[in-house]
Write a structure and sequence with these properties.
By secondary structure, the chain is of the alpha/beta class. It is built from 12 helices and 24 strands. The N terminus is likely disordered.
């Protein structure tokens, strides 16, 4: 994802301010016919980096690869759950980069046989007349949540585009979003992030207090670990050359956040059967799964006795598909009776996937699980690890910036500072989360 989208932040207003829309239900299309129907569809514009017949995966294939389909078949589909997505507002339609998210979701549901999305947009803070305008980042976040938890409500909360003028503004807005999101949702998915060195001690404290308030209300906060490997993006509002800092990013580095890294998924394009995964990394493009060790937070107790975690908070905790060429096929209307197909990418794709999984786990448990990190680590250290997770053991998050290689960390057996415990086998993991957490 781009610098702008990775740094996006938002604040959430009272639920009464939401503008809800129930999108028209599409006639389901048999899973076996999706690929052929898609390829034969007239007027379809397919982006060059997302020929899904060879690379990108349909929602159904992604569901199968990560063990979600079994849960959906059992009726665990996110019903009764609300996933909050903070997003940057857009002010002017500019297809296909800026589109109407209602139309995008209609096309997405129609092509892939999904039920109508339950979408609400809160635009009061943004103060714009067109709350449905959305960039591709917002669209992919919503479509991934909808693909994994089709009956969960999605609340998009918009922030003015001026939010990124400074780190102070960005941090204040994100902190407000966390506090208000804890009152209005069951899971908050944050794709924003900037390096630990960008924040003042007071800003770190304020954000941590907001995350504690969310945990106290049993709301799970999920955040992407970043898209630039072992270094952080430039601070919001910074100008000039990128002077890379080897560090982890906030809010993923906070011990109260479920931090999500990125992988490159290989699965069957027939039935979606899982084949293998490696670390997501494109060092030449300065991209890869964020990961490393905090300079601000000591090691939390749930990371005690985990080999490789060191003495400070280690990131990430888990991971999911984040590679542009192997991401889930997302759809954006281009405004001319066609649409653009692109591969959902970055840890801003893997984070909403995990947020949707937590929504499924909440529904199955019959209550919000809230702060799930201790349960995730108990599963990782326990006998069910290799059935609940896909252990990612290859790859690294070294990146090359301005012709200089910044050596990152390597994936390996068990937990590692690139992909955490790995990616989910949801059919095993989701039922385990409540049982383990309740012990």
């Amino acid at each position: 994802m781009c610098i702008k989208s990775f740094m996006k932040v938002a604040a959430i207003l009272p639920l009464a301010a939401l503008v809800p829309v129930a999108l028209a239900a599409a006639a389901p299309k048999p899973a076996a016919d999706v690929a052929s129907a898609y390829a034969a569809s007239p007027g379809t514009s397919v982006a060059t980096d997302c020929d899904f017949l060879a690379t990108c995966y349909t929602p159904g294939q992604l569901q199968a690869a990560y063990g979600v389909r079994q849960l959906l078949d059992q009726g665990t589909d996110g019903q009764g759950q609300t996933v909050v997505l903070p997003e940057l507002a857009e002010e002017q339609m500019s297809p296909p980069k800026i589109s109407d998210i209602r139309q995008d979701l209609r096309l997405f549901d129609s092509r892939f046989g999904l039920p109508a999305a339950r979408l609400g947009v809160d635009a009061r803070l943004a103060g714009q007349a067109s709350p449905w305008l959305a960039n591709q980042e917002e669209v992919q976040d919503a479509e991934i949540v909808h693909a994994i938890a089709p009956d969960a409500a999605i609340h998009v909360v918009l922030l003015p585009s001026t939010a990124l003028t400074s780190t102070a503004t960005a941090t204040a807005d994100l902190t407000a979003a966390l506090r208000l999101g804890a009152l209005e949702g069951d899971v908050i998915s944050v794709s924003a992030g900037w390096g630990e060195h960008c924040l003042t001690p007071a800003e770190v404290t304020g954000m941590h207090q907001a995350l504690q308030a969310a945990a106290d209300r049993h709301v799970t906060v999920v955040a992407g670990s970043g898209d630039t490997g072992a270094v952080s993006r430039p601070c919001p509002g910074s100008a000039g050359a990128w002077d890379p800092v080897k560090e982890v990013s906030m809010p993923a580095a906070d011990p109260l956040v479920l931090a999500v890294g990125g992988t490159t998924l290989t699965a069957s394009h027939q039935a979606g059967a899982y084949i293998s995964e490696t670390t997501w990394a494109d060092p030449v493009g300065s991209q890869g799964s964020g990961g490393g060790f905090s300079r601000l937070f000591p090691r939390p107790s749930y990371q005690d006795h985990v080999p490789g975690t060191g003495t400070t908070r280690a990131v990430p905790d888990v991971a999911a598909d984040a590679a542009p060429l192997t991401g889930m096929a997302a759809i954006v209307d281009d405004g001319s009776q066609q649409y653009t197909l692109f591969g959902a990418s970055g840890t801003s794709a893997s984070a909403p996937l995990w947020a949707a999984l937590i929504a499924l786990a909440n529904q199955r448990a019959g209550h919000d699980l809230g702060f799930v990190n201790p349960a995730v680590y108990r599963i990782g250290r326990g006998p069910a690890y290799h059935t609940a997770f896909h252990d990612i053991t290859t790859g690294n998050n070294t990146v090359i910036i301005s012709s200089t290689a910044v050596t990152g960390y390597s994936a390996g057996p068990g937990w590692d500072p690139v992909t955490g415990w790995g990616t989910p086998n949801a059919s095993v993991l989701v039922p385990l989360l409540d049982r383990i957490r309740s012990r």
